[in-house]
Design brief:
The protein is mainly α. The protein has 36 helices and no strands. Helices cover about 70% and strands about 0% of the residues. GO terms for molecular function: mRNA binding.
Length: about 625
């Protein structure tokens, strides 16, 4: 080994610059001489010099091990102690394939090392291919491989696949550890599947799931699974998202009382949830507890308080927190400023929002795309189109490219403003900036135009979509139908409906309710039978809104008998004694003739809809 280092030192003293190829030559020389330890010393020196061994380097070692008849050790040594450990997973995979080609049969260690490494590097598809190969060769999977694959599937949002891997581990008598549980709990909670998180921990035992997240916690405690702040944050987050704030607080307090060292993330999650449910006193109490535990609030904690106070309209209190943040030695960051800018734009105080942008620049805090989107949307909503355009140009000059989300947000802002006429101008600017609109953007544009009665312009947009190869969907056509109905162009609405069918799109209940609403508004409710017939032909049943439209329409046409018949059909109530007397007492405006016609219908009162019947 010393000889190897001496060689490198002599070369350096003579001014020879050694690259990867040079090191590989040295490695090859020592391996040929049978001095493997010296060759590995060269590799370590190579790393110190900032160079990375490559496949050639490790193949050289493999050749030497093969000479010694220890092929498998050579293979594993290169993968485990070499490329895999250095985080160079794709090179490790390439080496793996080379060795398989020359007849080396990978063993359990080889497969598990490579699958685990690739999954952690988010190369899960390659891991899955290796898994299939591993199973076909009859090589057993260990818990590390199962957990790595569960983690990858969870991060991809593929919860069913993650659960399948978990069940496979159980079937192979592998005992999940706290890492396995943490991975699955986090995946389920983040996707809102609290009930399924509980099922994982109860080994597929079906439960009611009413207190799912707390049961998960209890199961883990009973099974002696080690808890950590990551698990707690996943559970608390899941409970909050599912509206179970009391359970989240209870779990948090329980973990704290057990002496677990909760961190800033745990506290921030709970404080944010408490604020969003309007429980300010509890949020401040948790913040006080954080400080009592000598966990000084960080920027994330302050940002939660500032954001929630602004959302509650408490500007004075929010500003005091910004001042306190600075006094504690922390500077407001992008998140802080974006929060303040959002609050001022929401209140229509765009001049203050623009001052904050100037302040960001003075303090060398780089605005991001979110900052510009908030400001431009705020200016458009306030009707200050020229300033909005100026800022849009500033955004592109700063190197920011608008996204589809930016595009949609600005179109929506135009809809909410006093200058909805500029919506197409903003759309054109976005398209000219190099952004290619997707279906969601076009649907937003069509909706905005139709909502404001600009159906002709919306039809032009439909043609633009066709030219760009973007096929409209049922949402696009529903918006157009609604626009024509709102404008009183009911025949045009039916024309759009026919076009929708010609393109092979299936109407939904919203389509039919919109058409019925158009007929009702136009005083043509008598034509509703055709719409109802088509609705039933496509397998749709009327819902409450359908009946409300029909009842209201027939009542306005003074057809009270049909209105009440439909009302009774909606409620599906029969043989109700005394209902006629009840109707007369509640709505004496019904005529005797109407009551006689209703005598066989047995109806009961339903205030919102029945009011239309009686007043018609």
């Amino acid at each position: 080994m010393a000889a190897a280092l001496d060689v490198v030192d002599r070369m350096r003293k003579e001014g020879v610059e050694i690259d990867v190829m040079g090191y590989n030559s040295l490695v090859a020389g020592f391996c040929r001489a049978g001095q493997v330890d010296a060759a590995w010393a060269i590799v370590e020196t190579m790393k110190v010099d900032g160079l990375h061994p490559n496949v050639v380097t490790y193949t050289t070692f493999i050749g030497e091990y093969c000479t010694r008849k220890d092929i498998q050790e050579a293979f594993n040594f290169a993968l485990v102690d070499g490329l895999g450990r250095d985080g160079r997973f794709l090179e490790a995979y390439a080496l793996f394939r080379e060795m398989v080609k020359i007849g080396v049969v990978p063993n359990h260690v080889t497969y598990c090392t490579l699958i685990d490494s690739l999954a952690k590097a988010q190369r899960g598809n390659v891991s899955l291919a290796l898994l299939g190969e591993m199973v076909s060769r009859g090589v057993a999977m260990d818990l590390v491989v199962h957990t790595a694959l569960m983690d990858w599937f969870g991060k991809q949002g593929k919860i069913d696949e993650a659960n399948t891997i978990f069940q496979h581990a159980l079937l192979n008598n592998l005992t999940p550890n706290h890492v396995t549980y943490t991975v699955l709990i986090d995946a389920h909670c983040k996707t809102g599947y609290i009930d399924r998180a509980e099922q994982v921990l109860s080994h597929m035992e079906e439960k009611s799931g009413q207190e799912a997240a707390l049961d998960v916690y209890d199961d883990m405690s009973r099974q002696g699974v080690e808890m950590n702040s990551f698990v707690v944050d996943s559970l608390v987050n899941g409970l909050i998202k599912n509206g179970k704030m009391e359970e989240a607080e209870s779990l948090f307090k329980d973990m704290s009382s057990r002496g677990m060292l909760l961190d800033h993330v745990n506290y921030t999650t709970l404080i944010d949830g408490l604020f969003k449910t309007g429980n300010m006193p509890a949020a401040f109490r948790v913040g006080q507890e954080l400080m009592e535990r000598n966990l000084l609030p960080d920027a994330a904690v302050y940002n939660v308080f500032i954001n929630c106070l602004y959302m509650l309209g408490k500007f004075k209190e929010a500003k005091s927190f910004v001042a306190e943040m600075r006094n504690s030695g922390l500077e407001p960051d992008q998140v802080t400023y974006n929060t303040m800018i959002t609050a001022h734009c929401r209140e229509g105080k765009t001049h203050k929002a623009l001052k904050l942008l100037d302040e960001m620049n003075r303090r060398s805090i780089q605005p991001n795309l979110i900052t510009y989107t908030i400001l431009v949307a705020g200016l458009l909503k306030a009707g200050d189109v020229e300033k909005a355009k100026y800022l849009l140009n500033g955004m592109t000059s700063a190197g920011f490219t608008p996204t589809f989300m930016t595009h949609r947000r600005l179109l929506q802002a135009c809809s909410e403003s006093r200058r909805v006429d500029v919506v197409l101008e903003i759309h054109e600017w976005m398209m000219n900036s190099g952004l290619h609109a997707d279906l969601l953007v076009y649907n937003t544009l069509v909706h905005v135009l139709c909502y404001h009665g600009m159906t002709r312009k919306a039809t032009v947009v439909l043609d633009e979509m066709s030219k760009r190869g973007i096929a409209p969907d049922s949402i696009t056509f529903n918006a157009l139908i609604l626009g024509h109905c709102k404008s009183g162009h009911i025949d045009n609405a039916f024309g759009i409906y026919a076009q929708m069918l010609q393109q092979g799109l299936s109407p939904n209940i919203a389509t039919f309710n919109t058409l019925l609403g158009g007929l009702e508004s136009a005083g043509r409710i008598g034509e509703a039978d055709t719409v109802l017939s088509e609705m039933k032909n496509v397998g749709l049943e009327p819902n409450n809104l359908t009946y409300d439209i029909l009842v209201s329409g027939f009542a306005k046409k003074s057809n009270k008998v049909e209105a009440v018949r439909l009302y009774c059909e909606m409620l599906n109530i029969y043989e109700v004694e005394g209902c006629i007397t009840l109707l007369m007492s509640l709505h004496p405006t019904l005529t005797v003739a109407s009551m006689a016609a209703l005598a066989e219908l047995n109806v009961v009162n339903h205030e919102s809809t029945f009011g239309d019947v009686a007043d018609g």
